[in-house]
Amino acid sequence: MLGLELVVALGVAVLVSGVVAQRFRVAPPVVLLACGVLLGFVPDVLSVQLPSEVVLLLFLPALLYWESLSASLREIRNNLRGIVLVSTVLVVVTAGAVAAAAHWLGMEWGPAWVLGAAVAPTDATAVGVLARMLPRRLITTLRAESLVNDGTALVIFGLAVGITVGQEEFTVPHVGGLFVLAYVGGIAAGVVTAAVTIPIRRRIEDPLLGNVAMILTPFLAFLLAEPIHASGVLAVVTVGLIMSQVMPRIGRAETRQLSQGFWGLSTFLLNGALFVLVGLQSHAAVRGLASGSLLRGLLTVAVVCVVLVAVRIVFLFVSVYIIRAVDRRPSQRLRRVSHRSRIVSGLSGFRGAVSLAAALAVPDAVVSGAPFPGRDMIVFVTAGVIIVTLVGQGLVLPGVVRWAHLPDDHAVAEERRLAQRIATEEALAAMPMVADELGTDPDVVDRLNREFEKHLHVLHDGDEDEADAPALRHDQHYTALRLALLARKRATVVRLRDESRIDDTVLRQLQARLDIEEVRLSQRELVD
């Protein structure tokens, strides 16, 4: 029964944490972690362990795939150089700095590098949840970094573990080959997965089956990468970015609606469950240390957290000045940001479940049969670093963002209005030809033409003050009235069901249509 009890406990923890986070305006991961720590005091839950395979093979592909689908490929291309630097060079530098600090505190070099590799990558899910207040360019860079840097860190982690247990040798050709295999093989696995998936998705018209294929896609990419020891993370990210460009052309409206609801709910639950499990795992990490090592572990957590933030901020400043010295093109100057913005980016390097999964994947013994040196310390420090970065930086970041006075980002709203206006204008221009092809009644054409022209007036008035935008006010009144009348229609349909004049099946069919119209009008009200 413990499995069922744990599922219910996780669900309740996610629900309660979400309500508390909204009520007190606290970052949700902070509340979820605290809830996980409190849950760990329940006696029956003390024995619960978080297998690293569950995170790496179940949680991670789904979460990374959705993050990749919702990422902006244009922004990634525009900031590709910076993303590559922070997702490769910064990871190596961070792992080395943490290893040096851990060795200075008494840890052997092998376990120190394992710890450095575990805490080096930022977490995509944590960045997505905690950094939503940032401008689009900054959040895109952070998300893209966290999507790619897992692959770099896991290569370093595997190499460090292999050398420590006596299964790997450190030579430049060998290390270079591992990185090439991880990156090239991972990207190739993602491309192959996309090549297999796209024709299948073109032929599937059923929304349910289309979403089944969508769910299988990231796991197939991860599965193709694993046998060749390539990066499953890069495979999932690659196929996700490809599908984000292809799906608008081959997907059906019903499939997209269903997938938005499914992925939105499932990733919310997976994210919440992961943060709760990280808090829960902190109990096991503390129990794994001897009482005499607890103080040294806490000191190591503090030092590693300082090193992570310091190295990240220093790297962001140094790399920028190097780029400016090398690249003096005018386009490069247009991409420059303020020093305060770099401080915000430096404090946005949250660690998460991937780091904990790597720490838990450290083997118990080396080849000789002796215990893996410092394994319990690695798990404890990694869990501590995750909690400190999520809680500490998550609470500090809003104040730092206010201090930074980052410029307001209106680009998304402006581009949305531009797209709506051009799409409406081109549809109006094409209406006579399309109406002739379909043999549409002229009265219908006139009615639709008036609706499109009214929508154009609303779009043109969108940039004006409400007092000077009569078309916009008219549209807002129209939307409010339609929503109120929809509520009346829904109440009438429910009353007819209660009076047994219509069946529940009819109620559900009509309610589905009313719900679609209400959601459309509500979203239009928010957008306009």
List how many beta strands DSSP finds: 0
Mean pLDDT equals: 83
Estimate the strand proportion: under 5%
Q: Label the overall shape.
A: globular
Q: Give the helix level as a range of percent.
A: over 70%
Specify the number of helices.
21
Secondary-structure element pattern, one letter each: HHHHHHHHHHHHHHHHHHHHH
Structural class: mainly alpha
Distance between the termini: 50 Å
Pick out its properties.
528 residues; mainly alpha; 21 helices; 0% strand
Describe, in short, the structure shown:
The protein has 528 residues and is mainly alpha-helical.
List the helices and strands and how they pair.
Elements: H1 2-24, H2 28-39, H3 52-69, H4 73-78, H5 80-104, H6 109-119, H7 124-130, H8 136-165, H9 172-203, H10 207-225, H11 232-250, H12 253-288, H13 291-326, H14 330-334, H15 339-346, H16 353-360, H17 375-404, H18 411-438, H19 442-461, H20 470-498, H21 504-527
Helix pairs in contact: 1-2, 1-12, 2-12, 3-10, 3-11, 3-12, 3-16, 5-6, 5-8, 5-13, 6-8, 6-16, 6-17, 7-8, 8-9, 8-11, 9-10, 9-11, 10-11, 10-12, 12-17, 13-15, 13-17, 15-17, 16-17, 18-19, 19-20, 20-21
